[in-house]
């Protein structure tokens, strides 16, 4: 039942406080109409204390005062309309169309907070998603239904990498339709234009749904944007039975928004001023990825984080690492050498990779080749450190071959063109080409039978 209130207690930034309320619920949607303004502003209850409530305003709060605003409690949670018509569309952070396609008309409205997924009903992720990027496909394979974040830094080409993944990602050996949900939080307009133009040029826009919150948009809209995006993803996956890839950038902007709202509410801060519920808030987003037993369709999540000062121990990447199933770390050193994508192989991993590669999924040599590449490149880093001390001339022949392998591995294997799409077969063949540089005695991670077959 709708309830209407005419007098507010306090307005502080994008937060509004009221008292004397009767039977309102946490998360309930609110409409605020300001005298003299034609359009209403949407809000949501984010705190209840007795008969008092704190409302978070999603839109522009300029002009709202304690006496000129009418507040209507809708008696329902925040929902967005969903249908297959959302494909190819661009929306703002609260699901309102930004393009010229008009609103979505549907009889299905989904709660943006999602429907809790029973852990027992979850299906263990197995099949891999081919991205066409050699370093990811071979060494940190993305598994369908996985959540695999990209840890980046300011100025690194994470946007280009995300656009390339969207353009190239596909599920090998299946005819089921593949869709992409792109969620941008606090994006500069030129970056948003880059993504739109890139998807248009690649001809994939008809399978992409974009939720864009610009840097000059309200921060409250930034907080709800990932929930709207994941709601659309869940609908496409579990109702339309599509495999959905969700790209989110930048989760650091999301965390900053949470911190700002927490500060406005005078909450006791935790690490670096972030609220104590940052972990549970991030988990509520990341854990919406996955698959359900008996239901065709999946949600695979790739959140992108720009680490402040490249600090991987910063609260947002630190907590993200606990919740997700691995990470792809980008290297500033490789970027400065002109290598794209500058994936830092050694700290990167995919915890679900072992169950989605091998003879039944990719190729029988994949697990051994992956282990050998990691081991050999790890040894390369040690030899480079040694060469800086004693000089490259003093190294043994085997160590010199390792250095040769390391240089070619970075330039020819990790490095590839922005429009270069490498199949899994081509990726593994390229790995064998580089491993041939090393003496057979150094290939200790590869089964002799696999060596005999491929070497």
TrEMBL record:
GO biological process, one term: vacuolar acidification
Domain ATPase F1/V1/A1 complex alpha/beta subunit N-terminal: 11-75
Domain ATP synthase A/B type C-terminal: 355-454
InterPro entries, per database record: ATP-synt_VA_C, ATPase_a/bsu_AS, ATPase_F1/V1/A1_a/bsu_N, ATPase_F1/V1/A1_a/bsu_nucl-bd, P-loop_NTPase, V-ATPase_su_B/beta
Molecular function via GO: ATP binding; hydrolase activity; proton-transporting ATP synthase activity, rotational mechanism; proton-transporting ATPase activity, rotational mechanism
Domain ATPase F1/V1/A1 complex alpha/beta subunit nucleotide-binding intervals: 132-350
Xref: PROSITE patterns: ATPASE_ALPHA_BETA
Ribosomal protein found in the keyword field: no
SUPFAM superfamilies according to UniProt: C-terminal domain of alpha and beta subunits of F1 ATP synthase (SSF47917), P-loop containing nucleoside triphosphate hydrolases (SSF52540)
Gene3D superfamilies: 3.40.50.12240
HAMAP family for this protein: ATP_synth_B_arch
Family, as annotated: Belongs to the ATPase alpha/beta chains family.
PANTHER family the UniProt entry points to: V-TYPE PROTON ATPASE SUBUNIT B
Protein name per UniProt: V-type ATP synthase beta chain
